[in-house]
């Protein structure tokens, strides 16, 4: 039985300086992660991460001021037990947002601890691995400026994506939605031209459109053979999602801003998506993503977890992705089609690349699933100290 004797939280921040970039929604002048470290009465340590998009401080407060005192009072801190109890006690005010992100961090750390206690990777505890490494797709092709200067920007974009291909990737997701459609169409054409027809491409609008404009942009993506269109419209616009999905050939993806099985029940139930993208650090941790995977399976939908955090977030996603079945299952699985794939952010993030004593790296377009107990990774405490604020 796990009993927690200590809860520590860390807000890590790295300014990006000249490497700052933009999506359709925001400027990214820095990268931030909220980490939690749990220690058991036996002295074992587990790590988790919570949240991805917003400020880390509210998530920290949910842990320190509300959830940690309850966790410390539980004699049995098994992940499933803790999830049910903490969710029930915060349901009336915390069904989404920082509370669920805080619960995600605690849940991941508890699974890390359970694996450490049993000497087993999380992937084995949740059913076993279909694969020892996971095919990766790169996330890049961000905006480096909010103005569009074709001479400057298209060359720079082409060079950056060519660089990702040189790392061994065969699939890339680029950003769209910040600029008018005619200008983004030039960026899309540049990436296709530079990487060639065989390269698998996807695009992420971060919900920059309404249904009408998303359909117009989606036709451009269809023309260039893109395989999925992520967050075409705002997550609340279920009707818009369904309309876009009905009118386009390429798959519609979404779900990084959904919380728990209840959010995915509604997204899937309204016919919004072909691919669901739960973020394990956002949607409720490993315990909850297992329920979401079951839900998706009942609807024959693919799952490509959203991954954008530190090395802890990548490790958690690798453990889960190694256990995902093919969707749909066939005798001749096709990489990047029905074989699972992991998102591998390629923008500069020292919290991803430097946090772990053994970094998670690309090898022939794949990332190996760590074999050690729990998450299978060791956190470099000097790096935690270097980037911890406050
Ligand atoms: Mg996205």
UniProtKB/TrEMBL annotation:
SUPFAM superfamilies: Enolase C-terminal domain-like, Enolase N-terminal domain-like
PANTHER family referenced in this protein's UniProt entry, alphabetically: D-GALACTONATE DEHYDRATASE (PTHR48080:SF2), D-GALACTONATE DEHYDRATASE-RELATED (PTHR48080)
Source organism (scientific name): Brachybacterium fresconis
Pfam families for this protein: MR_MLE_C, MR_MLE_N
Keywords from the UniProt entry: Isomerase, Lyase
EC number of this enzyme: 5.5.1.-
Presence of the UniProt keyword Lyase in the record: yes
Gene Ontology molecular-function annotations: isomerase activity
Protein name, per record: D-galactarolactone cycloisomerase
Xref: InterPro entries: DgoD-like, Enolase-like_C_sf, Enolase-like_N, Enolase_C-like, Mandelate_racemase_C, Mandelate_racemase_N_dom
Domain (Mandelate racemase/muconate lactonizing enzyme C-terminal): residue spans on this chain: 154-251
């Amino acid at each position: 039985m796990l009993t927690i004797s200590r809860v520590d939280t860390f807000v890590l921040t790295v300014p990006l300086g000249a490497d700052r970039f933009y999506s359709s929604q925001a400027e990214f002048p820095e990268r931030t992660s909220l980490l939690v470290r749990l220690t058991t009465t036996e002295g074992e340590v587990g790590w988790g991460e919570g949240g991805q998009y917003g400020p880390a401080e509210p998530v920290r407060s949910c842990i320190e001021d509300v959830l940690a005192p309850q966790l410390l009072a539980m004699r049995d801190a098994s992940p499933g037990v803790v999830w049910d109890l903490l969710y029930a006690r915060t349901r009336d005010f915390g069904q989404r947002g920082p509370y669920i992100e805080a619960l995600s961090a605690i849940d991941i750390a508890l699974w890390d601890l359970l694996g450490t206690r049993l000497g087993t990777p999380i992937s084995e505890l949740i059913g076993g691995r279909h694969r020892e490494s996971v095919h990766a797709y790169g996330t890049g092709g961000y905006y480096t400026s909010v103005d569009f200067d074709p001479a400057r920007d298209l060359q720079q974009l082409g060079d950056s994506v060519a660089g990702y291909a040189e790392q061994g990737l065969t699939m890339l997701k680029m950003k769209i939605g910040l600029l008018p459609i005619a200008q983004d169409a030039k960026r899309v054409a540049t990436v296709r031209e530079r990487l060639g027809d065989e390269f698998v491409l996807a695009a992420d609008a971060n919900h920059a459109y309404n249904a009408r404009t998303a359909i117009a942009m989606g036709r451009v993506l269809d023309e260039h053979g893109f395989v999925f269109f992520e967050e075409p419209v705002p997550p609340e616009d279920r009707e818009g999602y369904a309309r876009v999905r009905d009118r386009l050939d390429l798959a519609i993806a979404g779900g990084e801003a959904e919380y728990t099985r209840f959010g995915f029940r509604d997204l899937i139930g309204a016919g919004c998506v072909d691919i669901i993208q739960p973020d394990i650090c956002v949607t409720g941790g490993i315990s909850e993503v297992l329920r979401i995977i079951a839900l998706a399976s009942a609807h024959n939908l693919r799952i490509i977890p959203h991954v954008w955090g530190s090395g802890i977030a990548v490790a958690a996603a690798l453990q889960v992705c190694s256990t995902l079945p093919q969707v749909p299952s066939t005798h001749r699985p096709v990489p990047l089609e029905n074989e699972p794939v992991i998102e591998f952010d390629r923008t500069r993030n020292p919290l991803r690349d430097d946090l772990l004593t053994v970094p998670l790296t690309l090898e022939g377009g794949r990332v190996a699933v760590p074999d050690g107990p729990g998450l299978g990774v060791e956190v470099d405490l000097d790096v935690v100290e270097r980037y911890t604020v406050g």
